[in-house]
Amino acid sequence: MGATSLAHAGGYVIGGTSGTGTDTGLSNMCLTPNDPTSSSATWSCQSNSASGGLVWVSGLVGTSLTVQGADLAPFIGSQSVAIGTQATSATGASAVAIGAGATANVANGVAMGAGASVGAAGGVALGSGSVANTAAGIAGYTPDNATPGSSTALAATKSTLASASIGNAATGQFRQISGVAAGTADSDAVNVAQLKALNSAVTTLRDVAVTYDSTSKDAITLGGASGTSLTNVKSGALSSTSSDAVNGAQLFATNQNVAGLQTNALQWSSTLGAYDAGYGGTAQKISNVAAGTAATDAANLGQVNAVSASLSDLSDRAVVYDGAVGSSKDTVTFGGASGTTLTNVRAGTLSSASSDAVNGSQLFATNENVALLQANALQWSSSLGAYDASRSGAPQKISNVAAGTAASDAVNLAQLNSLASGVNSLSDRAVLYDGASGDPKQTITLAGTGGTLLTNVQAGAVSASSTDALNGSQLYAVSASIANIFGGGASVAANGTILAPSYLINNAAYNSVGDAFGAVDTQLSTLKGSIANLNADTGSAYVQINSAGPGAQATGAESIAIGSAAQAVAANATAIGQGAVANNAGDVALGAGSSTGAAVQTSSMVVNGTTYAVAGLATSTVSVGAAGAERTITNVAAGQVNASSTDAVNGSQLYATNQALSAAMGSVNTLNQNAVRYDTDSGDQKLNSITLAGGDPNAPVVIRNVATGVAATDAVNVAQMDAGLSQALASATSYTDTRTSAAISTANTYTDTKSRQTLAQANAYTDQKFAMLNSSLEGVRSQANQAAAVGLAAGSLRYDDRPGKLSAAAGAGTWGGEAAFAMGVGYTTQDQRVRMNLSGSTAGGDWGFGGGLSLTLN
């Protein structure tokens, strides 16, 4: 202690106003309590800063200081504190500078952190590099649309002290303030949670707020998808200068005036393109007509365009859409207890598509025009029963009358003159009924030298009672239909004529139906003679009819094989047709290429893991096709139900399937009775057919109200079918005739070449069999043709396989002179897991029915 002091470890050096203090120990303190600022004072104090020593000269604190009187002035202010290296300064009065290079050179400034700096009196710089230069009294940000209350609150919190800084915006140094509690007073800092809450509230208000379209505040577009209703609108002023919005009551009053005017005034009709003089639903005359004055502008009320509100106080002053956030913006209810006046409403656009609001001046102008129209427009006179065109008690004329177009339009003088001229020339260009005036209108003779072409003829109705004219497209369609029925390559030429078909019968070509039938008749006559010769001849116990192809083989006992390469290989088997094969006892193979399989004794079936019994055990098989060349058959035994089966199923199988379906998804009987579904194969793939069945399984199902078919795949109605059925039946026998011709030729060849000795051994058998064949051949042929026609009809059925669709279909077919008709219904469930159909077909007075069901199991 003293002017020259020395302290060792743990000691203190305390000096006076001058002298030297040396602290050589560890963690010691060297200080002077006086202000060594006189020019004569010298104070030197050394402390081991690395060991925690401290040098404190009054107003100056450091770790190693050597100061000379006046040298302290730039670093230390009155009542100031500086902690740091020699570069640290706190020259301002009552200033604090802590940290290397910290500077607080203004009164009451606080700089804490390396390089922190305060440039405004009373400022606070916290953290290294922070700069506080903003002086007191700087007003904060005030929004342009702030309410008076908000502006007052902002002014009350205007800064009265210099800023506190935690960074340096000029050099891009910024810090976050963490752990900030939610502010409560107006001058409290707010945290992010409060800002998020505010943003959410603003977002919510923005969704329902009504705002100006732009900063010019000249338009407001309401956001309702179908427009927005403004309710509780106070009645606006109605004058030529008014810009107030009008409410419904005001518009209703105007509409009442307009409605009264519309009832009695002559109005313009946009549909007629003229003034409509109709009254009471009938055409009227115009009496005492003088020149009238019409308004050049039409008033049209659209969307109200002038709702103005401040977004700065949305909770109390904003006009918002009715309804919750996110709901449709189609109504706005104003909050005035006695309604709300909308002023400064800009004049809205007046057009047929406008939804702008109109202001009072626009409605006033409309009312002025209505009043003018009431004074000068043509008015309906109930006493005259017509529009009264008189003015001041005298009749007047109507000028600038547009040419009338409708039957009830007024005509002008030009039209009357034109009519007179047209009447004079009518005799040359008119198309008139034959005979004198008053004669029956039964004939019209067109006067063209080479005939007269009628063009633009609308398609007439085609029915038994129709008297409509037909156009070229309809005649072409009929020709095309006939050509399709003829087959044989028949087609329609460009001039509408039908190009001849070509039928191949017994290797000879014929180009007309008559010639083809003549050839068939010749072959039938030859066959008849051959059969007669065969009856008188001796024969074998086996009958083979040979042709140019491989011979027929009837190797089974009591079997019959007719046709090239036909085979009846089992007892009592019958194979008729080229390549037909009857493989099992009692089997019947009908038609070229038909092949029978073994009869399957089906007594039950499994659906979705459940076994169901079925009826109708098969003893043999009747086949009219083969794999890849199937034909439809009816009255069959229970067929196979598997992935490759093409057998038909009978009613007992469908009944068992219905039982399983009823257990899985409820009663199916009603569904089967009412549903119309596509037929499907065993793989649940839709077939191009629909089978219909009504309440009586033995009666056909009628599809009524069938429109006339147009496209090639359209259903036809009875009128269409009757019109072309005769040609279809006449020409559709060509295929059967061809096959019969082949059979005749084969029979002739066989008869000529068969051994007499073999025939003699079986003469009695042959006589018996051919007597039966002679009497039943036509019946077999007819039934085979009926079966083929049924197959074509059923194959034409088409169902709608979309989910939940119940559809009906009908089809017709002809074969070998026989005709058949089929109809059906199909249904697909909503999940497409179940598809079912019922169908019925008839030919030759017999009916057959079928049904199908498919289940998708995964």
Give the helix/strand layout.
Blueprint: E1 4-7, E2 12-14, E3 19-23, E4 29-32, E5 42-46, E6 54-57, E7 60-62, E8 64-68, E9 81-83, E10 96-98, E11 103-104, E12 110-112, E13 117-118, E14 124-126, E15 131-132, H1 148-156, E16 164-165, H2 192-208, E17 229-231, H3 248-264, E18 267-269, E19 274-276, E20 286-287, E21 331-333, H4 360-376, E22 379-381, E23 386-388, H5 413-429, H6 472-486, E24 491-492, E25 498-499, E26 503-505, E27 508-510, H7 513-536, E28 553-554, E29 560-562, E30 567-568, E31 574-576, E32 581-582, E33 588-590, E34 604-607, E35 610-613, E36 622-623, H8 651-665, H9 669-674, E37 678-680, E38 686-690, H10 718-731, H11 734-753, H12 756-761, H13 763-795, E39 806-815, E40 818-828, E41 834-843, E42 846-855
Parallel strand pairs: 1-3, 2-4, 3-5, 4-6, 9-10, 10-12, 11-13, 12-14, 13-15, 14-16, 17-21, 20-23, 28-30, 29-31, 30-32, 31-33, 33-36
Antiparallel strand pairs: 5-8, 6-7, 18-19, 22-23, 24-25, 26-27, 34-35, 37-38, 39-40, 40-41, 41-42
Helix pairs in contact: 3-4, 6-10, 7-11, 7-13
Structural key phrases:
five-stranded parallel beta sheet, four-stranded mixed beta sheet, alpha/beta, flat, 858 residues
